[in-house]
Protein: D-mannonate dehydratase
Amino acid sequence: MKIVDARVVVTCPGRNFVTLKIVTDEGLTGVGDATLNGREQAVAAYLTEHVVPVLIGRDATRIEDTWQYLYKGAYWRRGPVTMAAIAAVDTALWDIKGKQAGLPVHQMLGGRSREGVTVYGHANGEDVDGVLAAVARHLDEGFRAVRVQSGIPGLEGVYGVSSAAIYEPASAAVPTESVWSTEAYLDHIPTVFARVREEFGPGVKLLHDAHHRLTPIEAARLGKALEPYALTWVEDPVPAELQEGFRLIRQHTTTPIAVGEVFNTIFDCAQLIREQLIDYVRATVVHAGGITHLRRIFDLAALHHVRSGSHGATDLSPVCMAAALQLDIAIPNFGLQEYMPHSAETDAVFPHTYRYEDGYLHPGDAPGLGVDIDEELAARYPYTPAALPVNRLQDGTLHSW
Ligand code: KDG
Ligand code: MG
Structure:
């Protein structure tokens, strides 16, 4: 079965998405997400200029060989742009293979290991009352796990905290700037979790995202302060370039650690996993080289008691979500899946079989991934430049987020 066409579709049904659609001479098609928030056109160009020309005429059934060809063959390995492009090809080829076999992809990955994929939703509030209301809303909707983010007294606007129905941090063509105080944050967050536990008791899984903003010792302090509230994880406590930093956090706290939404390859987390410095790895399909490579990461993680906790923000398209769910339902060491519903416009552009019910997502049983792109509808939403914000300390120093 030969690849005869590969189209790169950039569309903006409320936010930008990049999708690769591969077409074979047998009429089977497959889709892959290639969206890199705020850098969409870089991946689109990489695909169009460097990947599509070498796909035409290739055997669509050779998923592993194509992955190796694009990874090793490029010479310039790794990096978010390259790996998102490889992910899109890999995902689309798994979609095609599933359709060829008449099986959902999770059946080709070993079949179901669970009945449904436990997801967590985002409960955000400008203040504690807002947080409590948001948690209550999620519990009413059946969520068993909630990520809790709060505004910080004295800071105007905190990343990830928004009252908008649909989460969208990439809001302006030129990055907006916000002001950050680690001291104010560290003082406030434990008080928020104290109130949440007091109100909702021990049953619900609680999570928190520190957005890479702390140093290891600050993260250790946060982890210790949160121990009484038994979080399921603190996410991205420190920027992860320095993997040794996690050792210091580990020495001080039993609060579990999740990291990896910006990871591209197994090499970004190999040390963290082997040394058991983390508990959850948050890599996902689009940013970690597709189903083929993410499976490798999760298999390494399984050997070291590390579970999956894949990224699932709205800047990952429904194509990525559909692919992630195929893995989530099959792997032995699944932990949690992030789930933020897309807008109605996005869902219409990407019709899919996965569905939410009572705290779980279900991938469905359609052959392949169970997702497609409506190219005609997509063409009605042209690309609109949008960048993620930047973060500065109160004295103006640029800070991580
Ligand atoms: O594009 C960046 C967002 O996806 C990210 O900031 C969201 O941190 C995030 C999360 O945990 O969903
Ligand atoms: Mg995050």
Q: What stands out?
A: The radius of gyration is 20 Å. The mean pLDDT is 96. Residues 191 and 334 are 30 Å apart (CA to CA).
